[in-house]
């Protein structure tokens, strides 16, 4: 497994994998061709996620295929796919990003249609295959509270509880006026409760940040009592600290993450084989155990009660590409530019 972060590495990769690969016809042929290709390059946004690397190592061990990784923010990965496609120097094979971003890349002509993969047959009913996208997992969000600062009896249990005047000046949030975690959380809440909710939250003097990993540390250190944009998958990293993850009523906002094959990929068969592996019980269980939402049947039943509490949470909704612009406009209206 290699990680590529700099322009020199990109240039090298671009020169070394410029030949477009051919997709095999049957699944047995896909597996054989994937092993012949011997490598797959994955562009992703799972920065610092040990569980993702665990899945990658499992795939390499099972198949003998080398994985080359490029990690970046979702918008950076999107622009990389675009620039490679426009230049005709495609280095990536798989892009893992939000459903909204992969939808856009597909509409712009930078993704290939996906052949059938066996493990897609095990998808849960609420997750489905699109012509250029396979669901990978979903990441859900809740409230993180400092247990030293917020007595158990006072801890919020619903999203509406955040509007209580006692929390004025005490709420930290990821930035909501641009695409990112903050909008992924407040956007679906806005769609559920309407603009009055956003107006009420604006009166709470919320503090905004653009560093999702530092935000939870600021709550753990006691700078703020509440973070309203905690990703479930980060919570286990806070073990031993005075914090609690709350799943507010009635449900949790989430972001669906998809996998797609990049158009003119050099290793299209290895790309399909990796995507099929990601939908295996083994890979999905690795994700579910850290609080991610699995997309295949049977995983949640194997988890501990606490793991199932997170991975089996009731999902509220997510902000799609068409809803982002109007939602951002509402956020700017009430929180300022």
Query: Helix segment count?
Result: 13
CATH architecture call of the largest domain: 3-Layer(aba) Sandwich
- Give the termini distance in whole angstroms: 42 Å
- As for the CATH topology of the largest domain, it is D-Maltodextrin-Binding Protein, domain 2
CATH superfamily of the largest domain: Periplasmic binding protein-like II
Q: From N to C, what is the helix and strand string?
A: EHHEHEHEHEEHHEHEHEEHHHH
Oligomer: single chain
Poorly predicted ranges (pLDDT <50, ≥5 residues)? 5-18
**Average predicted confidence as pLDDT:** 93
Strand content: 15-25%
Task: Give a summary of the structure in a few sentences.
The chain is an alpha/beta fold and 337 residues long.
Report on this structure.
This protein has 337 residues and is an alpha/beta fold. It contains 13 helices and ten strands. Strands 1, 2, 3, 4, 5, 6, 7, 8, 9 and 10 form a ten-stranded mixed sheet that branches. α3 packs antiparallel against α11 and α6 packs across α13. The termini are far apart.
């Amino acid at each position: 497994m290699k990680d590529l972060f700099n322009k020199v590495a990109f240039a090298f990769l671009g020169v070394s994998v410029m030949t477009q690969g051919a997709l095999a016809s049957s699944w047995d042929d896909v597996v054989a061709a994937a092993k012949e290709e011997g490598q797959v390059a994955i562009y992703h946004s799972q920065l610092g996620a040990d569980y993702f690397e665990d899945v990658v190592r499992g795939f390499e061990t099972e198949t003998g295929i080398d994985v080359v990784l490029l990690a970046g923010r979702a918008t950076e990965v999107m622009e990389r796919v675009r620039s490679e496609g426009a230049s005709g120097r495609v280095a990536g094979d798989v892009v893992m990003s939000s459903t909204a971003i992969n939808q856009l890349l597909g509409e712009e002509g930078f993704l290939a249609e996906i052949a059938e993969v066996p493990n897609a047959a095990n998808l849960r009913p609420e997750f489905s295959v699109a012509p250029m996208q396979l669901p990978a997992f979903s990441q859900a969000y809740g409230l993180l509270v400092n247990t030293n600062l917020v007595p158990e009896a006072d801890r919020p249990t619903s999203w509406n509880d955040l509007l209580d005047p006692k929390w004025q000046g005490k709420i930290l949030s990821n930035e909501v006026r641009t695409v990112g975690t903050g909008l992924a959380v407040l956007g679906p809440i806005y769609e559920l409760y309407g603009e009055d909710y956003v107006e009420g939250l604006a009166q709470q003097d919320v503090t905004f940040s653009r560093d999702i990993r530092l935000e939870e540390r600021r709550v753990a250190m006691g700078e703020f009592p509440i973070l309203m944009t905690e990703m479930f998958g980060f919570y286990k990293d806070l073990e031993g600290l005075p914090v609690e993850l709350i799943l507010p009523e009635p449900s949790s906002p989430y972001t669906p993450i998809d996998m797609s094959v990049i158009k003119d990929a050099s290793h299209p068969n290895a790309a399909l084989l990796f995507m099929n592996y990601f939908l295996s019980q083994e890979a999905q269980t690795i994700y579910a155990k850290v609080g991610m939402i699995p997309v295949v049947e049977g995983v949640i039943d194997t988890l501990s009660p606490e793991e199932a509490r997170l991975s089996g949470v009731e999902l509220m909704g997510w902000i799609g590409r068409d809803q982002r612009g109007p939602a951002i406009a509402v956020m700017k209206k009430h929180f300022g530019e």
